[in-house]
Amino acid sequence: MTEHMVVQIVTPDGIRYDHHATFISVTTPDGEMGILANHINTITPLTVHEMKIRRVDDEHHVDWVAVNGGILEIKDNIVTIVADSAERDRDIDISRAERAKQRAERDLKSAEQAHQSDDVRRAQVALRRALNRISVGNK
């Protein structure tokens, strides 16, 4: 049996991640999901979350990726995530993420005061994404 799987994260900008892993952790609308090699073939939606990837080269080597929703497919030890955006911890500009957080907080407050439910939802999503990027960037 294979002891590892290939993990690929694809965005409209191309492949953002492509490595072998022994374990990954993702978050779906139903909760957290841990995936090991030889996992049953699956397709599931993902939420905005911090993806943990334990690489095969060293049991202590963990990559963190800020994933902004998307779809996960597991098929024959190939895990593919298709997302609007995804950033590895080393690629995140914390100051830019902090500015996005502040913008989202202002937009949320303004939309709530104006009782604009669509704008409230958009600002909430932007805030979740910014907070996710900050959290992963600080790993």
List strands and helices in order, with pairings.
Elements: E1 5-11, E2 14-28, E3 31-36, E4 42-55, E5 62-75, E6 78-82, E7 86-88, H1 94-113, H2 117-137
Parallel strand pairs: 1-6
Antiparallel strand pairs: 1-2, 2-3, 2-4, 4-5, 5-6, 5-7
| CATH evolutionary superfamily of the largest domain | F0F1 ATP synthase delta/epsilon subunit, N-terminal
Strand percent estimate: over 45%
Shape: elongated
Q: At the first level of CATH, what is the class of the largest domain?
A: Mainly Beta
Termini separation (Å)? 32 Å
The CATH architecture of the largest domain can be given as: Sandwich
Overall tally of structural domains:
2
Along the chain, the helix and strand elements come as EEEEEEEHH
Approximate helicity band: 25-40%
Number of helices: 2
Low-confidence stretches: none
Rg over CA atoms, rounded to whole Å, is 16 Å
Strand order of the largest sheet: 1-2-4-5-6
CATH fold field value of the largest domain = ATP Synthase, domain 1
User: Would you report the number of β strands?
Assistant: 7
Nearest-integer average pLDDT: 92
Supply the helix-strand structural class: alpha+beta
Q: In this structure, how is the largest beta sheet organized?
A: 5 strands, mixed, barrel
